[in-house]
Structure formats: structure tokens, C-alpha cells
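Assemble and predict.
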Amino acid sequence: MTTRTGAARYFDGLTSARHDVTLELASHALVIRDGDGAILDQWSYDRLKHLSAPDHIFRIGLRKNPVLARLEITDMDFAHEIDLLAPDIDRTGASARKIRRRAIGWAFAAAIAMVLSAIYGVPLLADRLAPVVPRGFEQRIGAATNAQVRAMLDKGPPGRPFECGEAAIERAGLVAFRKLARQLEAAANLGTPLHISVVRRAEPNAFALPGGYIYVFQGLIDKAETPDELAAVIAHEIGHVAHRDGMRAVLQGAGLSFLFGMMLGDFVGGGAVVLAARTILESAYSRNVENAADRFGVQVMLALGADARALGRFLQRISGDEASTFSILLDHPTARERAAAINAIAPPQSRGVTLLDPGEWAALKRVCAGYRT
Amino acid sequence: MASFDAGGLTAAPGPVDRHMSAVRFLGQDRPYWHILVRGAVLLMVTLGIYRFWLITDTRRFLWANTEIGGESLEYSGTALEILLGFLVAIALLVPLYIFFFLGALDVGTAGPTTTLAVIALAAIGQYAVWRARSYRLTRTVFRGLHFHQTGSGLHYAVCVLFWWAMMAVTLGLAYPFAQASLERFKLAHTHYGDLPGRFEGSGWQLFLRGLPLWFAVMAPTLIALSALLAVDWVLIGRILQSGGNTSDILARIGQQAPEFYGAIGLFVLAFGFALLAALALFPAFQTIVMRWWVSGIRFADVSVTSRLRMFDVYKAYLGFVALLLVFALTMIVIAFIAFAIIGLLFGTAEQSKFAELFTILAMVGLYVVSALGLSTIYQATAKLSVWRLTAQSSALSDAAILEHVKAAGEPGSPLGEGLADALNVGGL
């Protein structure tokens, strides 16, 4: 039997000393001999592994060896013969590529799973969790969010109270507003107290926070032509409270932050993807939520015998040129879509119920009149 | 083999007569480009999960092609290892995140607790940096032995936070001393087998070399800030609050506070200059720090000297900028074509959900491709060149000691690397 031999550099992994050795391709193992022919070590072929090295060096070690012994071969023909004998060594890189392809496949599957859980899993989880969150906990989140939102909103010049209804000429308006709110609250019958207030902000807007905090902006009252229009918006916001949408948004935000912020890591451009994904997903979640709140508002208005179609009309009037922006980024469906949906479930007002008499409505319109800019 | 022909180092001052060993870098640009471009594409497809493989590939390439005294380094870490480390780190961080989430609910907005939480997170981040360094060192094999790191990561994190505070207070003047102190700490805990490392670079040396750069950037910044201080902001505030349309307000500012426009102009000019200076001087800064750092490294009696030339580093960055311009132009053309196609296919007159969806997808896609492209070009040009130049310009004296080192130290856990990744403080 002829055994092939070749030269190599050997590091025994115990010291950094370099040994110039002769390798012998015996039938059972790779035999490492020093210059005098003494056997330094024997490496069995099935434990050999190929290690990272510059192109001109073939570097091998032993699998599962705590000692980092290395052999370095520069004669590539000889390296090829070792390659043929060792089952785990593949210098063409074909098996490494196969393993890599499998890894990429799994990574791709994991990415798909993440996207799917963001689109379906997170809202589903938030839907299930929001109703079972204890009221006391939601109240605390509400109080914290409320403090945060108040700190963020621009309260105008110092000395001017942010909430309307405190100045002498505003008091009658506040009484009328409370009457309206009381009727809506009674019709909604939520079982938890609401904190509805009017604040000095020029935008025609209103929003609800977790814990029953509802803010109605001065701009909305200015734009409202009838008590029913204002009432319909408040009824819609009460719908958010009833459905615990604020709580759900908090849970969804936390879920998405975790999913994308933490798992996606800091690869370049990731930040923008996270932001875009969050914006689109949160808008999508919230469009469904808005439709549900609209339906709730309609039920409240119908229970009061008020004009349930007022919301759709009012929305269309104040939204005006909204259609020019990207609708998939809007967190509300377009006013036209919402009005159509509302009209589909709300019959036109038949009884002439009035929530406020003309005097009260006139007073309410002036609930922020004490501090005009 | 450990000896070499001194080549360009014959003019080296000081230890040239001692036994010198060269550091070489053998890597070519092409295979590195291949790793990075493939990595960028796969990062996109896998939403970043491929980063564990990409970082392993780049390290293998850079390590294997760096040769010290005729022996190349080897990176023995695997992608699976850091992926598992990352998953464990996530599992450890989840309770922490929940704790912060609930804590934030109780205290509302900015309070002392929030500040403490930010500091705690920063400390954990630096602890992770320390542990990640430990992992990289133990996965760095040279002549059959690995490096390792001792010392406490917590101690390191406290030191880093202290020096960050000092740098903020001194407007960056403490940077050289921070670097010197932290490098001393790092290298004192770094070992090659049983050979202890240490760092001998002095903060003052770096301070004196960097001072002109600091002035070049800080002087215009200070001018810009003082220009703003000269403005009577109370008066401007009153004019803005008095209402009226924009041109009215501008006219009134011109009448009542004539110095305002001059001050704003000076601010823009000085600040723009500071920004340009910072960009233009960055390669110089990097050269100075790198040369200082490499020349301060010691392992027992082995010392390293660097003769990195600023001119070469500038050339490397010019190459980066040139390629970047070509890339930017290409991206603009592609963006133009993409939006033109969307416009033609869906029209702009009518509100179409598809047009919107495709526009947003195209915008996000272009952004991601641009960001990944920028990073890839940077790594394949400037970063690789600086690595190569740094290696080629370094030399070791008394490297014969490196031939008689004994193995020591346990392999480090990949958890540190995973933690660093989860906290977004990872690095090469």
C-alpha cells in the first residue's frame, strides 16, 4: 500500500509554537510526524473540519475539540487528497452552500411569520386582551396617557385656561354641554364614569383615551350647526371607550414595537421599514375600529331618538379636501365612506327629539367665548 | 518566516533595529463585494434576520486575510451561535421591557424614573458591548490559540457612562482621555493565550494631535450659537404672537429687530461651515485616532507601531464618495422611472388604492435599497480600505515572543453578542 505524504504547518493548540511537519495519509487516519519522524498526533478523517483561511492556505482542525489544534497546507493537490478522504470536508463549498441555503430559507420563513403575526396576530391578540384588562389597570393607563397628552398639546398663551367653561360668560355653555354629555352617557350606559371636556384648540376634532377621557376641541363646536352633530361625534368617541379601543391601541403599539423594534435589529434602513409598517398597519387596524365606533354612535343616537345621520353629514362637511392625501395612511376611513355606512344602518330621523333647546345650544356655542384670540 | 524584509519600514524611527514583523492584508475587493452585496439582498428578503450570517462572513473574510508575522488570523465564530445568543438575549430582555412599560405607565412622562431607566438601558448596552468583545476575542484564533478577555462588564459600563458624561460637559475635549482610559481598561483585560495585553497610548498625545480638528469644528459651531444668543428672543416671541399674516410678521421683525436676519444668516453660514469641516476632517480624525490606538497596543514585550498615512485614508474616502455619487445618480434615475411607470399604469387623476399602495411600496423599497446600498458601498470601499491600510502600515517588534505563548482562557459565550444586537449596539 502506498501512502501519500505531504508537508504542513502544525499548531498543537497548547502553545503558539509552529511545527513544520510531514502528513501521512494512512488508511485509518491522518498521521502527523515531526522532522524526526516521531508521531505527534493522529487525526481520524471523519473528525476533520475545514476552517476559514486565506485562499492560498488549506486549514483544517478537529470537530468537537476543545484544543484549537490546526494544520495548514499550502500544496493544493495534497489538500485535494485530504478532501477526498474526509467526509465532512468539501473544498468546493457545495455542502456549505447547501447549509447556507437552508438557513436562508428558515430566515425567510421567519420573516414571513413575523409579517403575518404583525398583520393578523397582533390585532387578534389585542382584541382578546383588551376586554380582559382589569378596569383599574386601564384607569391607570388612562391617567398616565391623559397626563402625557395634556403635556403634549399646546395650551396656548399662559394664563388662559386650557379647558373651556371656566370664565363667567362660558358657564352657561358648560352647563348645556354637561347636559348633552349626561344624556349621551346615560344612553350609552357603560358602567364606568366618563371624563368629557372641551378644550381650546382650533382644529375640528375630538378624541378618546383609555380610561374614559374624551376631549372635544373648540374648533369642532364652532363647526357644528346642530346639537345633534356635536352629540353624534361625542357618541362616536364614547363608542371608542365602550370598545376599549384606547387600551387596544396601547397593546397593539407595544406588540408592534416588540415585533419590529427588537426582532428586526439594526440593519440599515430597518428604522424606516419599521415606521412605514407601523403606520400602515396601525392605520389599517384603526379604520376597522372607527367603523365600529360609528356603529356604536348610531345606536346611542337612535336610543336618544336624535338624528343618527348627523355624524356622516358633519364629517363630510368638515373633512372637505381630505381626499387628496393617501387614504391607506389615514387612520379614519374617508368621510364619504363613513357617511354611506352610517346611512345604511340609520333611518332618517322621524321624531322631532331635541337634545338641547335653542337657548342652550346658543350658550354651548359660546362655551369657549371667554378667551378669543 | 517571522522575520521579513523591512520593505517600506526602513525609515521607521525607534525600534527599527529590533526584530520587526509585518502585518499584511491579503484580501481582494471582489470577494468582499460579493459577500456584502449578497448580504444586502438577503437582509432585505429576510427582514434583517440574515445579519447573523452576514456579520460572520465579513469577519471570516477580514480575519482570514489579515496576516501577522506570516500567520493569518482565523474567526471561528458561527452564525448559528450568535443567532442563539440573540434569542436568549431577547428572552432575558422581554421581562425588562415589560417592567419599563409598566413603570412608564405609573410615572407618566419624563421624571427621574425615566432618566434612571435610560441610564440603566445605556449601562446594559455597554455591558453587552463588553461581552460581545469577549465573544469576538475568544473566536479569534492565531497560531492555534485564541484570545480572551477577563474583567467585569459592569465595571466597564460604569466607566463608559462616566466618560460620556465628561465628554458632554467638556464639549468633546475629554474624548482623548476617555479613549485612553477605556482602551487601557480593555487591553489590560485582553490576553493572547497567557500573554497579557496592555495599552500605552497617552490621552495627552491624542489630545494635542486632535486639538486643531476640534477647533476647526467647534469654533464655527460656537460662532453659530453666539449668533443666536445675540437675538432678542423675547421681542421676536412678542412679534410672532401679535398675529397677522406671514409677510406682516416678517416686515415687523425687519423694523423692530433688524439684527435678526443677520444673526440667522450668520448662524446658517457658520453652522454649515462647521458641518462641512466635520465631514472633510473625518478621515484625518480617523487616521490620527487609528495611528494612536495601534501604536499603543502591547502584548507583554511585543509592541505595535503604525505608520498609517493620512493621504492614503483620504484617497480611500474619495473613492467612497465617487462611488456614492454614481450610486445616488442611479437611484434617482430608478426612482424617476419607477414613479413614471406607476403614474402611467394607474393614472393620477383618480384616487386608486393600487396606485397608493405601489407608490408607498416603491418609496419604502427605494429607501431601503438606498440605505443598504450606502452601507454596502461604505463597507466595501472606505471601511475595507482603512482596515487594509491600517494592517499594511502596522509592524510588530519582538514578535518572536508570539511563538512561545501557552493556551489560556475559556471560550466566551455568544450571549453578549446577542444582547448587543438586541439592544442595537452591535459592531464589527
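Chain A is about 50% helix and 15% strand.
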